[in-house]
Request: fold
Amino acid sequence: MKRGAFGRLLGYMRESLPAYIIALLSVSVLTAGMQVYGAHFTRMMLDAAIAGDTALLSSGLQRLTLVLLGVVILMPHANHVFLASCAKATGNLRRDVFAGVLGLPFMHFEREHGGGLLSSLTNDIHEAEQAYMNTVSGAASLGITGLASAAYLALLEWRLAAFALAVGGCTLMVKSLQARRLRVMGREVQDARADLTSRLVDILTGTRVIRAFNAQSLLLSDYERRSVHVYRASMKRVRWNALFAGSDALLKTGGLVGILLLGVWMAMQGIITIGAAVASLQLLWGVSALSASLGGVIAGVQSSMAAADRLFELLDADKESVGEGNDRLPLKQGEPAIEFRHVSFQYEPGIPVLHDISLHVEPGQLVAIVGPSGGGKSTVLKLLLGFYRPTQGQILIGGQDSSDCPAGRIRSAMAYMPQDDYLFAGTVAENIALGCPGASPTAIAEAARKAGVDDFIAAMEMGYNTPVGEGGGQVSGGQRERIALARAILKDAPILLLDEPTAALDEQSQLLVQQAIESLAAERTVLVVAHRLSTIENADRIVVIADGRIVETGKHSQLIKLPDGAYQQMYRHRRTAGVQPVSH
Reply:
């Protein structure tokens, strides 16, 4: 049985729980002590003043000095320990959520907008943090102060204490009836914020396209619409909280007037002193704060729990099995490096992408996959990498069924260069070494040389320490592709997967990459998806995929001779058009 969201949040305090509890109780007791002693001091001073007792006045001032000195010394230290414990717990939560995001299946990132995940990593974590930072501490402080005030009030006069507790009980009942609605509204606000963040991510990452198409007004209008949705959801919660505040004020004012009248009447009857009557009024603030401020505590809890629900939904989502990071999949001798056995696949039920694909690639071969756009070429690589599992059939890597292996173990045997050769903000060297942490500068430079990128890196003022900018924005498209190729080469995996590696290259760069691929094929197995047919004419085998099926396979010299063959038509089109067909 899973713990509730609140219990799971507090579970992140496990490393510093003793310190958190001690600090929380210390702060709460000191706060309660100040409240109760303040009422006691007021009683002493008024009674001493009315009686003209200077000794009592002097004694009271001395005790107050000692109490204040103790609070000044202890309170900052207790607050420091408390806040440090909260910061550590939030760090643990943030780490788990980030790890949970990284562990989500690839399909999740294709179906869900990244802005929702960004909102979870920012807004939801901040909102959930309030549960143990403000809500629990507020509840503890209010509870201890309220109970201590009620206890001292009972010592002064039990009837005043009974009246104060009755007012508090009524307030608590009203707040409890309103709590569930707050959680629902809190979830609505968090969802609306996530939607707004998603649009903001779109705007920031797509700013080049937005400006090129003069779409600023359209995007601004859409952003404003989503912003209004956040505003309306927030205002709905504000109105409900305002209703809470109204009932709080009514109950608190009624309680104060009631205890004031009761205290004055008892003082007039000689049952209690004037000092005790004023102290009772002061103590009522502690008792009434417990119940009156309970609404704010409940509201805070529900808001935090709405955010926590979203976080734990993410943490509880199915994760892909990665395995140990250094656990490389061994390839069995005498087995094909890659083998598809009657593989079919569909992203959505009823929408097939691949049909009965059977394919084998021997170790050391360079095999190219070509075909019209949308035929399923890139999907073959995604299945190999374990981003998806086949709907039917088997995929074997070095003679081992990939369905029996964690995805991380499968990927350990492969280096991959995707179409969208993304570079992370950092230096050229850091991007090349992404799949091989700790690689030496010599190894990085050698990978760059094999990818044909070393000359332009050497020409840069900072060389391999040159920042590439976010997404590689400070280098050209061709340079970005060759850095990505160097990254794949450096991993030194027995299988190299290339998804249209020359798509953004000029003729000179294309020739360099083509030579690099052919050189690599002598050292490892290479499977390349290509739309520039000239780059793969020397491949050991070319596989033509159309409409999710293998329609032709063979060498370039064989396929080009097939009358009315798919490959021949593609090749003829390239020769007559003088351009390369674009494929996705």
About this structure: The first helix runs from residue 5 to 11. Confidence is low (pLDDT under 50) at residues 579-584. The CA atoms of residues 30 and 143 lie 13 Å apart. The radius of gyration is 35 Å.
